């Protein structure tokens, strides 16, 4: 069977690819996250997240993902993982926290899984 069209959003189960379509969808979100390079911006966000969301014109899906601190939902809302790292850092979420979200495990269970893989 010949595949004539590749739909990057459904062809790899469980994976959200960041392509031009997703870049457009997540432009406001990624712009907001880029602003977190500034300590003043991080402080402004923490003081009033809702106002900061509005400042960057996030849509409701993006706002809710931010409220939930759900990196996977942020990716689905058009977030680029490199910009989202700035967002995650505000809340002291590390790579293991994100890995736990991706696997549906608790952070403790995810850490244990990583330790077992090293045996």
Q: What are the low-pLDDT stretches, counting only 5+ consecutive residues below 50?
A: none
Percent strand equals under 5%
CATH architecture annotation of the domain at 20-92: Orthogonal Bundle
Number of continuous helical runs: 9
SSE series:
HHHHHHHHH
What does the largest sheet look like?
Answer: none
Q: What is the total tally of β strands?
A: 0
Taking Cα atoms only, what radius of gyration do you get, to the nearest Å?
Answer: 16 Å
Supply the helix-strand structural class: mainly alpha
Mean pLDDT across residues: 87
Distance between the termini: 42 Å
Describe the structure in your own words.
This protein has a domain at 20-92: Orthogonal Bundle (Protocatechuate 4,5-dioxygenase, Chain A), CATH 1.10.700.10. It is built from 9 helices and no strands. The chain has helices spanning 20-25, 27-35, 39-47, 49-55, 60-68, 71-76, 81-90, 95-103, 107-117. Helix 3 crosses helix 4. The chain is globular.
List key phrases describing it.
mainly alpha, globular, Protocatechuate 4,5-dioxygenase, Chain A
List the helices and strands and how they pair.
Blueprint: H1 20-25, H2 27-35, H3 39-47, H4 49-55, H5 60-68, H6 71-76, H7 81-90, H8 95-103, H9 107-117
Give the structure's gist in a few sentences.
The protein has 119 residues and is mostly helical. The protein has helices at 20-25, 27-35, 39-47, 49-55, 60-68, 71-76, 81-90, 95-103, 107-117.
